[in-house]
Amino acid sequence: MTSLEEFRAEFDQWRDAIDKANRAAVSKSALEVTRIIRANISAATHGTNRLSGVGRGGARVGARYDLKGTVNPTALIRATGPVHLLERGRRGGYLIEPRRRGRGGRGRRRALYFDGIYATHARPGPVAGTRPFGRGVDAGIPKAAQTFQDVHAATMRRHFG
User: What are the pLDDT tens digits along the chain (161 aa)?
Assistant: First the structure.
């Protein structure tokens, strides 16, 4: 029979092992979901992970996660860049006009150039959203649950078995 102090020391080790197992399992699960979301975003952007027509060189889009807490860990998965343009799409029907040029253009409007055609303005139609983030979360939840169980079970076997 062990003494109370030995039991308390062993119990503290078990508690620390469970906390570490929880944190590792949450981290691996969040990484699994983030990988699926990144793959969906990559497919929606044709492998470039950039949105053309946003900014000068195209805006980078992706996903990441932050892990918070040690006793009760939580992962926050979030989109980076203007993923909302892919997620929700756009209504269309608005007017695009050329910008006024500065010094060289003397305030005149220039023509727009679309697909080999010059135009004074354009009115694009609606574009449906592809929902890469939402579909990634939906597909990732079952895999994340399985990953959580696998990592947690492996860590517990290592410490208790």
Answer: 568 888 888 888 888 888 888 999 999 999 999 999 999 999 999 999 998 878 788 899 999 999 999 888 999 999 999 999 899 887 877 777 776 655 555 555 666 776 777 777 777 778 788 999 999 999 999 999 999 999 888 887 887 76
Enter the tokens of residue 146.
């399985």
As to burial, measured by CB atoms within 10 angstroms (0-12 exposed, 13-18 middle, 19+ buried), residue 67 is middle
Question: DSSP strand E in the chain: where?
Answer: 50-51, 59-60, 62-68, 74-80, 89-90, 112-114, 117-119, 127-128
The rounded distance, in Å, linking the Cα atoms of 9 and 40 is: 47
The radius of gyration computed from the CA coordinates of the chain, to the nearest angstrom, equals 26
Specify which residues 77 forms β-bridges with.
Answer: 65
Identify whether 15 is part of a domain. yes
- Residue 62 resides in a domain: yes
Which residues does residue 89 pair with via DSSP β-bridges, in sequence order? 128
Count: domains in the chain: 1
Q: In whole angstroms, what is the distance from residue 141 CA to residue 119 CA? A: 47
Kindly state whether residue 144 falls inside one of the protein's structural domains. Answer: yes
